[in-house]
Specification:
Blueprint: E1 4-9, H1 13-24, E2 29-32, E3 44-47, E4 50-53, E5 60-62, H2 65-74, E6 85-88, E7 91-94, H3 99-106, H4 111-122, H5 133-141, H6 143-158, E8 188-190, H7 196-203, E9 208-210, H8 219-223, E10 226-231, H9 235-238, E11 248-258, E12 268-271, E13 280-283, E14 300-309, E15 318-319, H10 323-336, E16 342-344, H11 356-366
Parallel strand pairs: 1-2, 1-10, 2-9, 6-12, 10-16
Antiparallel strand pairs: 3-4, 5-8, 6-7, 11-14, 11-15, 12-13, 13-14
Helix pairs in contact: 1-11, 4-5, 5-6
Length: 370
């Protein structure tokens, strides 16, 4: 008899939410992770009394009230609103693209003026077939915004020229003709009060966990412990790379403690010119410290992010959904669909970039929570 109903490989948001829901239905789970901590990429480390998002910034956002109520039932979320700024050649522009951005770019005041300016610049793509990201961006917002706020950042992010990237990456580029810097359209958004570790700890309360445990180093014994496996790691690794390896982009962080209470005035600033080697700077205290109390801590912590090509030994972050990798993933997906005792879920197992809320919603639906 197996000791557990589920062996859950990976203690990130998918695995932790699955474990919580299974426990609510009387199932026994073992959650393992090869890292020395739980939480996957949500993990926060306390530095200078600030919750530092070790694997990049995470803002939970959703319009699904059941999902919002679910996570807030585990830990209370604050009212953080994502409103990043882009810096290009020493000038600041609001994101996402909205009337503040257009006013900063062209000096226009009204939506009609902004629309007219964009329409003038979109004309260069009239009648042309859209074949790459550069053409797609110009067809949506014109040449000025593309050159200043999209081109350099995107090429740093993906390590490829925009003319070599598929257009679908930027097909849903948000353009708003209102003065609103709220990055997300969702009804609810925020960050757990006290950091994401509290969310993960709440989800995994009363559940057996093991860190520093590599599934592939002791696969046979671990698989024998449970009736079913929930796998959230790399799907190509699960199948011993029999068709080849999927590609990713990864991120390198440079994190510093600074002797100032407020370094940049907000959580995220993007640097969109190619000459600046990092893509953005995150100031972590702004996720939980608002204007009234930002100066209470005389120190701050910032992280500079550098997007680099992934290789073994680095953390895989962003799937590269080009034609080659999409076809390769389909081969692995066809194997996964034949499994009766394995559930594949999450960013690496499905080779798909996920925001957090869709991950939670997907698991809740599996257990008929929503």
């Amino acid at each position: 008899m197996a000791k557990y109903d589920y062996l859950i490989v990976g203690a990130g948001l998918y695995g932790s939410t699955f474990a919580y829901c299974a426990k609510q239905q009387g199932k026994k789970c073992l959650v393992i992770d090869k890292r020395p901590h739980l939480g996957g990429n949500l993990y926060c480390e306390k530095i200078a009394d600030i919750n530092v998002h070790q694997y990049g910034p995470h803002i939970f956002h959703t319009s699904n009230k059941k999902v919002w109520d679910f996570v807030n039932g585990i830990v209370e979320f604050n009212r953080f609103t994502e409103s990043p700024v882009a810096i290009y050649k020493g000038k600041a522009y609001n994101l996402p693209f909205n009337m503040n951005t257009f006013s900063q770019m062209w000096g226009v005041i009204t939506p009609d003026e902004a629309k007219k300016k964009i329409e003038e610049q979109r004309k260069e793509m009239e009648g042309k077939e859209i074949t790459n990201l550069e053409e797609q961006a110009i067809s949506l917002v014109g040449r000025d915004i593309y050159e200043c706020l999209i081109k350099g950042y995107t090429e740093k992010q993906w390590g490829r020229k925009c003319t070599e990237l598929p257009p679908f990456i930027i097909r849903r580029l948000p353009v708003r003709f209102v003065y609103d810097n709220n990055y997300f359209n969702d009804s609810y958004q925020g960050v757990p009060i006290g950091g994401y570790n509290k969310l993960i700890d709440g989800l995994l309360t009363g559940i057996d966990t093991q860190v520093n445990t590599d599934f592939f180093a002791n696969r046979k014994e671990l698989e024998s412990l449970a009736n079913k496996i929930v796998f959230t790691g790399r799907i190509d690794e699960f199948y011993n790379f029999q068709f080849g390896k999927l590609d990713y982009r990864t991120v390198r962080f440079e994190t510093d403690i600074l002797p100032t209470s407020n370094y940049q005035g907000l959580a995220q600033i993007n640097y969109t010119e190619a000459e600046v080697p990092y893509t953005r700077i995150i100031e972590h205290k702004h996720f939980e410290s608002f204007a009234a109390d930002v100066d209470k801590n005389p120190q701050t912590v910032i992280s500079r992010e550098y997007s680099v090509e992934w290789k073994e030994g680095l953390e895989p972050y962003y799937p590269i959904n080009d034609e080659k990798n999409s076809k390769l993933y389909q081969k692995y997906e066809s194997l996964a669909q034949q499994e009766n005792h394995v559930i594949f879920g999450g960013r690496l197992a499905e080779y798909k970039y996920y925001d957090m809320a869709p991950i939670v919603e997907k698991v809740l639906k599996m257990f008929d929570y929503c």
